[in-house]
Amino acid sequence: MTTPGNEFLDRTRQGFGAYLCARSTGTRPDGAALTALSERLGLVNEFAGKPSAGESVAFLRRHGAGAAGAIADDDVLHADWVIHVASRRDGVVDSFCQEASKLLVPAPVRVLGGVLGTKNYTGAAMNNWAYARQVVQQPGSVMPNAFLVPMSKTPEWWRKGWMERHTYFLPRYDEHGRMVSEGHALAAAAGIPCMLRRTYRHPVEPAPEGTYDFITYFECADADVPTFHEVCAALRDVSRNPEWRFVREGPTWHGRRVASAQALFA
Description:
Helices cover 24% and strands 27% of the residues. It has helices at 31-40, 74-77, 92-104, 124-130, 155-158, 162-167, 183-187, 225-236, 261-264, and strands at residues 13-22, 44-45, 56-62, 81-87, 109-117, 145-153, 172-173, 179-181, 196-201, 214-220, 247-249, 253-258. The strands form two sheets. Strands 1, 2, 3, 4, 5, 6, 9, 10, 11 and 12 form a ten-stranded mixed beta sheet that branches. The protein has a two-stranded antiparallel sheet with strand order 7-8.
């Protein structure tokens, strides 16, 4: 029997999002104009940690050197500022990115964008385990660390049917019932109670050359930064998580959340 392809996956879009990665040229952008743009588009500042109904903006300042990945991307790795924008309304994210990029001139801007989709591989039990108890967004003073990690899957991954892909997220057992690998879910389990996580997907799978399949993002408290790195190490260990044989990561960018656009450029 042929393994089913992608024809059964739900492609409904739940929202839109983007990260604007900018490198300083020594000229300070107009933070007040960025704030006015955000307010005009009805975007809530994520720093307050209040529910935003999917309409939000965040300002992140570079913290530390970051780490290069298999996919070279200096515009992300060396970004001094990252601005996140999210909306459930079609066109809002594109409008923000276009206008914000003009306000950031002469700083070069790299936009990483995508969509929020439905959870195709998540049943009720996995939803309760992985999502129902996950950390929701907290104020920036409580969870100040932000990690941006874009990545793509290999062509071999995209040639697999959805049923086979699903098996990589779960533990695997031998014929005697012994666990032989944890899979993605268990390898990442330590992060569920302490890290906010968000993933945007490229609207097309696989993503075109020069773009990413997934833009992943995490927030955590200072005390949980080691947990972030431990989870990343567990996911990259193909003996624990065979899925990672099919992953190519871009840079891991580490920033700190700041209260406003004005504070971002201060």
